[in-house]
# Entry
Amino acid sequence: MRPTGRLHLGNYVGALENWVRLQDSYENYHLVADWHTLTTDYEHTRQIPENVFEMVTDWLAAGIDPEKSPIFVQSAVKQHAELYLIFNMLISTSRLERNPTLKDQVRDLEIEDNVSAGHLTYPVLQAADILLYKGEVVPVGEDQLPHIEITRELARRFNNVYSPASPVFPEPDGLLTKFPRLPGLDGKRMSKSLGNTILLSDSADEIKGKMRKAVTDPQKVRRNDPGRPDVCLIFSYHQKFNESEVSEIRSGCESGALGCVDCKVRCSDRVISHLAPIHEKRAQIEKDHTIVPAVLAEGAKRARVIAEQTMSEVHQAMGFGA
# Structure
């Protein structure tokens, strides 16, 4: 993840909870993608250290165990940059311009006429991030699947050109969570830049206040009006955080017996309950500011061992240093 500070429910549902669940079945590496932030916000690099701290604190609070799963900052392992450079030689600009995720991001940020070369090629850097550790499965949100396909293409291209008899890189698969995309409170893509998020660290009162302002079915104006749960974003939150009452919520909404205000209150309570253990652990981590730096230092040390071995294989396959 790019270090943009405290995480929101979309980050949690789309990726983070999946990371936590997979720790017991995979050897995981968790990367703080600080170089990726330069693609859209290169002018504010002094904010990165604090954003890293806040994001990693959320990771740890949500259940990432650094003993099982190394956590490290991308720029602390320089081999990412070298592999990125090599991969850039193996893909065309026209292929990168067809990336639907990039198109969506450029549109949302309103930078159609000012896309940097780094922004265009950030899926290539992401491919380097994955393949440097020979990742086989990449837990992602739905919007990142096109990037995984680019990663697979680059792995195939490198193997075919430089090491057809003994492939260096695997072709990774994307692994979606059950609820890969949670809409923001305005019904659009959840994003802090759009101001439509619930943060993992939000207090109970903040969650209730934000939920009260969330959009619902525009045709359900009064309490007794029949609603359409499948077009209401609050119902999608119930499906994630209140699964046991989904049938009851649907019935009450469709019949008009359940008003939007009461529905939002019930949803808020379930979200607050779900996040309570995360809040408790976050408070413990925040009391000791040495925890996060120590986790990152040890994670980078462990990551470099793998990165150096991979680049040695890359150099050998390409004939560098022979």
In short: The mean pLDDT is 93. The chain has two domains: 9-181+290-318, 202-284. Residues 29 and 189 are 27 Å apart (CA to CA). Residues 9-181+290-318 form a domain with the Rossmann fold fold (CATH 3.40.50.620).
